[in-house]
TrEMBL record:
<keyword id="KW-1133">Transmembrane helix</keyword>
<dbReference type="GO" id="GO:0004984">
    <property type="term" value="F:olfactory receptor activity"/>
</dbReference>
<keyword id="KW-0675">Receptor</keyword>
<comment type="similarity">
    <text>Belongs to the G-protein coupled receptor 1 family.</text>
</comment>
<dbReference type="InterPro" id="IPR017452">
    <property type="entry name" value="GPCR_Rhodpsn_7TM"/>
</dbReference>
<keyword id="KW-0807">Transducer</keyword>
<feature type="transmembrane region" description="Helical">
    <location>
        <begin position="138"/>
        <end position="161"/>
    </location>
</feature>
<protein>
    <recommendedName>
        <fullName>Olfactory receptor</fullName>
    </recommendedName>
</protein>
<comment type="function">
    <text>Putative odorant or sperm cell receptor.</text>
</comment>
<keyword id="KW-0812">Transmembrane</keyword>
<feature type="transmembrane region" description="Helical">
    <location>
        <begin position="236"/>
        <end position="258"/>
    </location>
</feature>
<dbReference type="InterPro" id="IPR000725">
    <property type="entry name" value="Olfact_rcpt"/>
</dbReference>
<feature type="transmembrane region" description="Helical">
    <location>
        <begin position="23"/>
        <end position="46"/>
    </location>
</feature>
<keyword id="KW-0552">Olfaction</keyword>
<dbReference type="GO" id="GO:0005886">
    <property type="term" value="C:plasma membrane"/>
</dbReference>
<dbReference type="Pfam" id="PF13853">
    <property type="entry name" value="7tm_4"/>
</dbReference>
<keyword id="KW-0297">G-protein coupled receptor</keyword>
Length: 310
């Protein structure tokens, strides 16, 4: 029988053990985190105050920004603290809490991206019905479902994480409490946690991606039938930002969670995790603002109004 040990805290090994890189990484990720907060909070405020951004697409985008703020905030502050700390520890309870919010927020974001794809399908393929079918109450219901589902399924997943047993190795080869490295150091309860992690990730990625692919397949068919070149260009331009966000987010998560945890996959996953916990939340406001004419115009009007006020 394994010699199970009561766990009070874990040691987060972080991105690197080389001391000379710690301060450099701290500076880089502090800047990235500040840009993430400013960009996403700015996007939320801009959407709330701009009359031209009151359509369902921007309502969903404001929630994407909201989730990105919390997804990054769940991981980055502790990572920054550990980069300058010698102990680099996280309590057992703190680890479970971080796991819970991370899993919940990832599921919420995955399904918000699916909802946004459905919204684009309704806007392009059913323009005459769009106003009635995507009413305010419908949008609230569509956005509520990812939150309820995400936080519910995360509770189940976190309870399975709580069911892991450890035998003296409390060093997590990561910069936050993630399932794959926790599974790697556990000595009991591993098989059910590993199996459920892969199955739940597979089901949710498959279902949400099927909504995205189906929506865009129908959009492509509708756009190709348009006689106006200008209409086709406008339809594709409204989808480009969303497709970029979907590709970045799903690609990194599938690489991380649809593989069995091994020493190699955990090490690779650590680098990939930097992307979806810090870089993607920073990039999303840029992707949606630089490629979106309405957002750019709203920014210009807000700046002009601020200058007039001065």
């Amino acid at each position: 029988m394994p010699n199970f040990t009561d766990v009070t805290e874990f040691v987060l090994l972080g991105l690197t053990s080389r001391q000379e890189f710690q301060v450099l990484f701290f500076a880089i990720f502090l800047v990235v985190y500040m840009i993430t907060l400013l960009g996403n909070v700015g996007m939320i405020i801009l959407i709330s105050i701009s009359p031209q951004l009151q359509s369902p697409m921007y309502f969903f985008l404001s929630h994407l920004s909201f989730v990105d703020v919390w997804l990054s905030s769940n991981v980055t502050p502790k990572m920054l603290e550990n980069l300058l700390s010698e102990t680099k520890t996280i309590s057992y309870v703190g680890c479970l809490v971080q796991c819970y919010f991370f899993i919940a927020l990832v599921h919420v974001e995955v399904y918000i991206l699916a909802v946004m794809a459905f919204d684009r399908y309704m806007a392009i393929c059913k323009p005459l019905l769009y106003g009635s079918r995507m009413s305010r109450i419908v949008c609230v219901r569509l956005i509520s479902a990812p939150y309820v589902y995400g936080f519910s399924v995360s509770l189940i997943c976190t309870l399975w994480t709580h069911g892991l047993y450890f035998c003296g190795n409390f060093e997590i080869n990561h910069f936050y409490c993630a399932d794959p490295p926790l599974i790697k150091i556990a000595c009991g309860g591993v098989h059910i946690k590993e199996y459920t992690m892969i199955v739940i990730a597979g089901i949710n990625f498959t279902y949400s991606l099927s909504v995205v692919f189906t929506s865009y397949a129908l959009i492509v068919v509708t756009v190709l039938r348009m006689r106006s070149a200008e209409g086709r260009k406008k339809a594709f331009s409204t989808c480009g930002s969303h497709l970029t966000a979907v590709t970045l987010f799903y690609g990194t998560l599938i690489f991380m969670y649809l593989r069995r945890p091994t020493e190699e996959s955990v090490e690779q996953g650590k680098m990939v995790a930097v992307f979806y916990t810090t870089v993607i939340p920073m990039l999303n406001p840029m992707i949606y603002s630089l490629r979106n004419k309405d957002v750019r115009e709203a920014v210009n009007k807000a700046i002009a109004k601020a200058n007039v006020g001065q």
